[in-house]
Amino acid sequence: MRTPRDKHVIEHWLRLYNRLTGASYRVTAWPDIDSSRENVDAVCIDDRGDLLAVEHTLIEPFQNEKADAAQFLQTLALLENDPALCLPGFTCLASQKVGAVPKGLPWAPVPTALRAELAKALPNLPEGRSTVSVDIGGKALDVWVQKMRTSPDDRGRFLTGRIGPGSPAPELMRNALVRKLPKLSAAQADKRILLLEKDSVAGTIENQYAQVRDETGIRSLRKGIDEIWVVITAGLDSENVIFTNPVDPQEDDNRSFCSLNVVTGEFWQVHR
Q: Where are the domains of the chain?
């Protein structure tokens, strides 16, 4: 059964999806309220009368996430949308590995060192993925940066996150897909979409999904599904913003990566 928060996430994502695609879907029913049956989470309809079935699940990042979050929030996360790091016309996604700050190193000087080095490096980085190595107290801290061109009038964004320890455990994703895809596939609808929510700045759902996507069992389950999207809600409570991007079908240029401020309605999208 969906919680009130789950319903809000689905409704917020639907607003964002409509804005991105020009669709007009609205939720008409929450079938999963009947826990005695295997129902999808939401049934939606658009202005033409076409039905959309939506299934949602939260994907966990990794063990000991809370301990690492304390470190991250006092280092790279402090630089989120720092004016010195926002390049007009670009969005930069900067990530550090879980446990990246060397043990024994005080956290206080880390943001200053990161800001200074990234401010110099970002303007010269090519579009796409790069690595910036920052010297902090004689020890190297690597920051992975994805630089994406937006529109010339965009003020620029500098977003931060973490990369999980090694390859995320594929069983987390596999178990979620095995639970969710069968009932979504069976839904009577014109389109079926699975939402994979990430409510933490850690972990990479795209990598987790890529590890299991082409397994025989998962490939068979995906046959009745039209689209799978990531929904990033790490900033929903603090900033009123959600992000989304498709993972299946996959896009190489991130053109559908977008966000919505659920209070003001401000919409943002990567432009190619």
A: 4-60+169-269, 65-163
